[in-house]
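Sample 1 of the test manifest.
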Amino acid sequence: MIKLSGIRKDYQAGRGTITALDTLNLEVGRGEIFGVIGHSGAGKSTLIRTINLLERPTDGTVHIDGIELTALNGRRLQQERSNIGMIFQHFNLLSSATVAENIAFPLSLSKAPRAEIERRVRELVGLVGLEGQENKYPAQLSGGQKQRVGIARALATNPKVLLCDEATSALDPQTTKSILSLLLEINRELGITIVLITHEMAVIRSICDRVAVLDGGRIVESGAVADVFLKPQHPTTREFVAQTEDAADARLIDTDDSKPRDRTRIRVTFVGEQTYEPVLYETMRDTGVPFIILQGTVSRLKETPYGQLVLELKGSGEETERAVLALRNRGLDVEVMDHA
Amino acid sequence: MLDWLADVDWSDIWQNTLDTLTMLGGSTLFTLILGLPIGILLYMTRRGQLLEQPVVYWVLSVVVNVLRSVPFIILMILVIPVTKFLVGTSLGVRGTIPPLVIGAAPFFARLVETSLREVDRGVVEAAQSMGASKWQIIRRVLLPEARPGLIAGITITAVTLVGYTAMSGAIGGGGLGDLAIRYGYYRFETTVMIITVIILLILVQILQMIGDRLVRHYSRK
Ligand SMILES: Nc1ncnc2c1ncn2[C@@H]1O[C@H](COP(=O)(O)OP(=O)(O)OP(=O)(O)O)[C@@H](O)[C@H]1O
Ligand SMILES: [Mg+2]
């Protein structure tokens, strides 16, 4: 659906140049919710603005639904942009227009008939749950309501892609949740491909299917959210994973030097239906290896339940190896953290 | 008790008030017609803006600054040939309108540029992301969003023009300024001068009040 190839973006800054994006490749599938996470200055905004060419890349190509946007200019580009909706951190609504006028704005740009516009605005107001607010001005709305207007406006022209530039960063946690579930609902019901950028792992794990980690203008890690979240490789990714409150706090186990020699630490990860099965209990009972739980998380990624436990197994190398093997045979992911 | 008012030629005052209103109305109208596009062009051609044209911006900016730095009274004399060419005379109500416009339009253009710059860049960007053309961005985003600022600018310009029309009396432009000078300065009839000043003051008050009301009405922030 979206394909960025060899994207490079240089900014002129005084005498030097800043490379905001460095030969970056990215593909987003149809109907996917794709997250991009990165620290401030990593190039997230530049990346998302490149997708609809608000920022023209210095080098590289952008394809949306098979059409090369980077080859377009003027009117053709303006037309193509109506297939790409965008919402913003600071909402960017017309302060001089009412809710209904804001939502109607993209339709009136393309000179849609009045009756058609009115019908569509009613529909969208219902979709984002703003009934009764149609004649208010943005200044009279809460942040969450403003973002709902933003979403309705972005959807007005029935785009195939929705770009979200830090869409929840200006909102409180409760409102963030409601906006995220609205985005998820839109993705499910309208099949719209969503690209969202954020600096919060919590946003990624609650609605994204895949994620890319951006650092210094490069994608340093990407993949299915479960893979990246449960087995972060790059230091930056680890930092982001550590942000989420229920992620294992490494300090708790790493600082303990008094570990007896006959113990082995393992990290067990289970995803999906396994979460509800007594796999761990059964395996340990069968192998007879006693264990203690040093740390544990059972939670969800988007809709997928998962668990991650750090265990300390008691016994000889041989015994524990057998236990690890048995766990793996039951389909659990086991990482041996250290050997006695 | 009101003896000192008895000698005043009210019909003369009335006529000159009408002249002033005509000059004010005409010059404000043409100032807006000329200044608004120049202000928009100044904003749009600036570095980093949608029509980025450094050379155009620079030329426009220098012309505007030059016209603004020449004192109005001198400008009026300098543009007499232009005035004669445009309206056939440099005297009377008609003769004052071109210099008033040439004096005020650059000033108004800067005010337009400033109020457009106050418009949130993000809103312009949102419109771009929806596929708005540059013209649509001007018409549908910049002007409506800047409306309170533009109205305030029009008010300031109109009030400034009240002062300029009075000044233009000095070179035979007619109107209340002319009256004040004829009676007050050459004949020492202070009464007429005071009446003239009061009328100008009332005019300024009314303009300012209307402007403030409109600004308040259109402010949505
Ligand atoms: N218009 C510009 N001119 C010059 N440099 C820019 C411009 N826009 C962005 N940059 C630079 O490019 C880099 C990436 O910026 P970008 O805004 O994409 O970061 P970001 O990841 O969105 O950060 P944040 O989380 O703070 O929004 C930064 O170093 C920034 O200073
Ligand atoms: Mg940003």
